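Blinded run. Sample ID left blank on purpose so nobody reads anything into the name before looking at the predicted structure. Input follows.
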Amino acid sequence: MSLLRRSVALVAACGTAVFALAQEPGPRATTSYAPVEGKDPFDAVMKRMSEAKPGLAEQHRVLLESRYDLGDKATDGVEMSGGKAVQSGVRVKLSAGAEWESLGNMRAQEIRAKELWPQGFLPLPHPHHAEGGMVFPKTTIDELLRQTGRDLERFDLDFDLPEHFLPEFPPPIFLTTRPDLGDVSQGQVVTTHNFFELFQGILNPKQIEGLRLLVTPFPQQQFNATDDRRSVKPSFGVSCFDCHVNGHTNGATHLVGDIRPQELRHRIDTPTLRGVNIQRLFGSQRALKSVEDFTEFEQRAAYFDGDPVIATKKGVNPLERATQVHFMAEFQALMDFPPAPKLNLLGKLDEGVASEAELRGQGIFFGKGQCAVCHPAPYYTDNSMHNLRVERFYEPKTIGGRLTLADGPIKTFPLRGIKDSPPYLHDGRLLTLDDTVEFFNLVLGTKLTKAEKVDLVAFLRCL
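Blinded prediction complete.
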């Protein structure tokens, strides 16, 4: 069973028939290209979008509150690696009269016919799906402005999910080469202003240069020096570590650049870079084969919605593969998973320190829950891609500008350190691990009991 802001599982393993639904072809836009020159001056565009911002934010807030319980409900005694409380409970709201137990006993066709698929399990739209683009949480915006003077606030929209559903800020950094040091960030957000001081004497010169490039801002679609940017002032751009703060994630969101038209583009929840050394696929759906490929792809294409003309206009940064990309990848490969004191060398629970509930949860994970089909120990990934075919549970509809057609195949992200990386699934539609267990119980048809779900969540928090 797949659990992470982007993880997936092998549907065929659940023993339930998987079928392809006949559906009308999706929409085709008149063009795939954005205009190179805008019709209106920058000041007029900023004024129009700034005035529309409160109304758009209110519409999206209503959508989120109709889907989720957004309250701050921390789990007693469960913290992320740096001490932030982990949120508890199922936050996805059910339709009136529906119950999780009864849904778990229904077939996909019946759930679809009765329109009982929870709204929170549908694809999550971008805060303003028609516009899209990178959006950063306020904690990141404030800290980067304080340290570097760069302002990543957009005049047209703000980040949408409450801070208590996001990874801790700043997250610790653990290195495979220096586990004796613990958190090498020393509680700081690593930027151009402190990276050398923090890592001098820990990294070799190539790795230091790779880290420098990872914290250096380069032009991006919304943050650049052109008149069609979405920041008030011209910007140097964004860095890799603006989204992947300290080599982890801050939950920043974007839209994938490789799907058209706009309403079919998937929201992206920024994945952690922890543990990339054991991964063989990169990108939620792109299946790039090396971290070097992904690093170069992001700079050349993803930063600019896959549009090379716009990239040229805004200032594409073509990294040199043999030195710059290689150095960046070498540092990324050092990013380790957080410590998991209850796991043994094989990635299983140490019976001497784990609770009975955690041990029961482990048995469910490797047994009835079918989670380990795609998430085998010790790193809890099969380094493959799977298609959950969630579209069999609902009729396509447009919500918040997002047409809820098929998600397609998605990579299996590692579950090590999963409690540090909310929200879950590739687009962040699942706010808690409890939500994720309920989601996959329906998708895989595993018919877990309420007690089994609780135990499974307890195990996941140990990884």
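Unblinding after everyone has recorded impressions. The longest strand covers residues 74-79.
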